[in-house]
């Protein structure tokens, strides 16, 4: 099953954007993420709609942060990206009349809902500046190579 890595990728990008201190092109971000600039622009658009980034076209243009990382939480970015499915574990509905399937689905559903609630609460309490503080400029340079 394919993972949705947009959250971790955008957190990565936002922290780098702060480190650059100047507009960063979609091409530069795409190279960092080993993807296409179109994918970067499409994903960044949802962050722009929420007011976290701004873009300027043309020479000297690119993406910039509009708010400090201390004002952005993991939950903010998770929501801006559309709150993808937290877990890839799914419930079955092939035998919906079977009492065992119902019991299994109820148990799994309850556990997954509780786990998702906990993750959301934790996301709300982690600002991006806390992640950025874990890295020195030396470590950031290693990422750019």
Description:
The protein is mainly alpha-helical. The protein has a domain of 98 residues: Winged helix-like DNA-binding domain superfamily/Winged helix DNA-binding domain (Arc Repressor Mutant, subunit A). The chain is built from seven helices and two strands. A two-stranded antiparallel sheet has the order 1-2. Strand 1 and strand 2 form a beta hairpin. Helix 2 crosses helix 3 and helix 4 crosses helix 5. The model has no long low-confidence stretch (mean pLDDT 87). This is Rrf2 family transcriptional regulator. GO terms for molecular function: DNA-binding transcription factor activity. It holds the Pfam family Rrf2. One of its GO terms (cellular component) is cytosol.
- Report the structural category: mainly alpha
Q: Could you report the average pLDDT, rounded to the nearest whole number?
A: 87
CATH superfamily of the domain at 6-85 and 127-144: Winged helix-like DNA-binding domain superfamily/Winged helix DNA-binding domain
> How much of the residues is beta strand, in percent?
5-15%
The CATH topology of the domain at 6-85 and 127-144 turns out to be Arc Repressor Mutant, subunit A
The whole-angstrom Rg is 19 Å
Portion in helices? 55-70%
Q: Trace the largest sheet across and list its strands.
A: 1-2
* Count of extended strands: 2
InterPro entries: Tscrpt_reg_Rrf2, WH-like_DNA-bd_sf, WH_DNA-bd_sf
GO molecular function, one term: DNA-binding transcription factor activity
Organism: Exilibacterium tricleocarpae
Protein name: Rrf2 family transcriptional regulator
